[in-house]
Amino acid sequence: MYVAVKGGETAIRNAHTLLADRRRGDRAVPALTLEQIVGQLALAVDRVMAEGSLYDRELAAMAVRQARGDLIEAIFLLRAYRSTLPRFGASRPLETGRIEAERRISAIFKDIPGGQVLGPTFDYTHRLIEPAMAGDEPVEAPERREAVAEARPRVTDLLGAEGLIEADGSGAAEPGDITRDPADFPLGRDMRLQALARGDEGFLLGLGYSTQRGYGRNHPFVGEIRIGLVDVEVDLPEVGFAVCIGRVQITECQMVNQFTGSAEQPPQFTRGYGLVFGQSERKAMAMSLVDRALRADEFGEERAAPAQDEEFVLAHADNVQATGFVEHLKLPHYVDFQAELDLVRRMRREHAAGAAAVPEAAE
Amino acid sequence: MSAAAPAYNFAYLDEQTKRMIRRAILKAIAVPGYQVPFASREMPMPYGWGTGGVQVTAAIIGPDDVLKVIDQGADDTTNAVSIRAFFARTTGVATTTRTDAATIIQTRHRIPEAPLRAGQTIVYQVPIPEPLRFLEPRETETRVMHALEEYGLMHVKLYEDIARHGHIATTYAYPVKVEGRYVMDPSPIPKFDNPKMHRSPALQLFGAGREKRIYALPPFTDVASLDFEDHPFAVQAFDTPCALCGAEDVYLDEVVTDDRGGRMFVCSDTDHCDRRRAGETAE
Question: How far apart, in whole angstroms, are the C-alpha atoms of residue B242 and residue B239?
Fold first, then answer.
């Protein structure tokens, strides 16, 4: 006798209990602390903050832990929490020219005012798994230099002073917010950049890479990458001036791209822009490549490659949306499948009847 | 605020968000079948799992409502259980499995067999609200097609089905025309359920969270499934009645009982089946 697939409630409860057990793992091993996750898995935490679009290391670390290290799941947790928070307003544009940079490099000049600062980078390491990683060997203290008073002007500003690169946006208008307003294509660049900043690192990496391989090529040079702490300032109408409400760590990438020019306008380089929370050069660089590719219309470039297609890129860059919809396929679909089964069976019967009828007709 | 979840507002969403969603719902009711963009929020369940329906329900539910949640016609499928538990936790409202006792019915993929009545609201979870999406992937294009009532492409697609298969090969999410104007996706309900939408006395709301669209059918709206004069729209018919309650003219699930081809067909609408077996009169 058929027994209805009952007991959904109990089954779900048991599955979640098992999940909690697997999450904790061997009870003889100490549990991870949030300090350990924030301190030693910092880049995982940064990615969760960036794509979760919520700057809170502790919450991000809790999410990473709750998600058993599944970063997209952690991003989802942070997003769902974020959507319950009120929005007070917009900060002033970050003054990244005044960043307290731990890393700052330019690929287009050998030396720049303020110097090239490598900072904590994987670049130039040999990717050999260090036997030391099996244990907890003492780590040397890093070299520190005295805080420098020397200004670190943005490299794009140096080019801009000569008019060699297109002007930056004014940033005067209140930016749009795709999490609060329904996005209508085509989007403004503000909302586009927001969507890219929240977008999946892997997806943007692949798209950025595709522009380098000829699908919407835009001749990029890394004008500058900066990683460091920057003040967040908010205008307070009550006091009549901007007040710093805290500092965030960001990675900014200014890509210097293919020049344009016309009879009226002398040639100048164009920009692609990437900005993400925390330390993520890969994401910031990919974002700036895709940002530039999406600006094709502004420069009268033919839009032929996937990376140049705004609807394609922005409708699919969000990993929380993507994972939800891909994974929803595991939900029951038996009602729809029954409808398909019914039709296919009917068509097969008709097909068989037709095949049987043909020889008779021939006789 | 519910005692069970003091950290969150009644029905999870904050009041400003609910107002925004209600405005979209009102506009949707005013223009039946038209997809109204809304600023869909991130919900604590995944996109594609009913976030649109959940947001619509959260925006309209009040403390006196009685909620029923079904998935595939059943109250006890895992996702229906999860969504019902979500609202029970965040609102504390009464829940039910009885179609006639519910004031709000949130559904995925089915319309209950028992006719809905005036005063009830059915909320559909919608994955892809755009009926033209698989003919034209671009939103900018489909928007213009709706504005100009350019639905030729849809008829060509249905015609090509007939030419190739001898049938219209769409068996669920079968497109409908609303009040002779907008072509609308009825959500992935089997086409068996399409006629139930026509002039239903209940308010029908459709929420697509990931795609950020809400649309609606006010009570007694004309809903016609697309067809041709020589290939009129017809619903699925089953050869056998429900093996449990004997119901005919209902949608059945095929249950595989063994690996030797054994099959049985039972009501997809579990409430309908339960009540018939309990001897209650069901329409």
Answer: 10
How many CB pairs lie under 8 A apart between chains A and B? Answer: 147
Q: What is the pTM of this model?
A: 0.89
Q: Do the beta carbons of residue B217 and residue B176 sit within 8 Å?
A: no
Structure tokens at A222: 């890394």
Distance from CA of B25 to the nearest CA of A (A): 14
Per DSSP, the three-state class of B123 is strand
Predicted local distance difference test score (pLDDT) of residue A4: 43
- Is-contact A246 A328, C-beta < 8 A? no
Average pLDDT value for residue range B194-219: 98
Sign of the CA dihedral running B9, B12, B16, B22? negative
What is the structure's pLDDT at A147? 67
Residue from A306, A276, A323, A277 nearest A214 by CA: A306
Provide mean pLDDT across the span B82-88: 95
pLDDT at A146: 73
The CA distance from B125 to B53, in Å, is 5
CA geometry: angle A278, A279, A283, nearest 5 deg: 100
Residue A76, C-beta contacts closer than 8 angstroms, at least 6 positions apart? A52, A67, A320, A323, A324, B42, B46
Q: Is the pLDDT of residue A306 over 50?
A: yes
What is the average pLDDT across B160-180? Answer: 93
Closest CA in chain B for residue A340: B171
pLDDT tier at B217, thresholds 50, 70, 90: very high
Does the active-site annotation cover B261? Answer: no
Give pLDDT, residue A8. Answer: 73
Side chain identity, residue B53: G
**What pLDDT shows up at residue A320?**
96
Tell me what ipTM this predicted complex has.
0.83
Alpha-carbon dihedral sign for residues A66, A71, A76, A82: positive
- 8-47 in chain A: CB under 8 A from chain B: 8-9, 11-12
Half-sphere exposure of B278 (CA within 13 A, CB side): 9
Give A196-239 pLDDT, tens digit per residue: 999 999 999 999 999 999 999 889 999 999 999 999 999 988 99
Query: Rounded to 5 degrees, what are φ and ψ at A117?
Result: -120, 115
Please give the torsion angle defined by the CA atoms of residues A184, A185, A186 and A191, in that order, rounded to the nearest 10 degrees.
60
pLDDT of residue A354: 86
Measured CA distances, A350 to A347, A353, A356, B165, B191 (Å): 5, 5, 10, 10, 21
CA angle (A39, A45, A47) in 5-degree steps: 140
Q: Which tokens go with B76?
A: 């006890």
Yes or no, beta carbons of A338 and B39 under 8 Å apart:
no
Give the tens place of pLDDT for each residue, B231-265: 999 998 899 999 999 999 999 999 998 888 899 99
Instruction: Report, in this order, helix, strand and coil percent for chain B, each rounded to 5.
Output: 30, 20, 50
* Beta carbons of A182 and B188 less than 8 Å apart: no
What contacts A149, CB < 8 A, 6 or more positions away? Answer: none
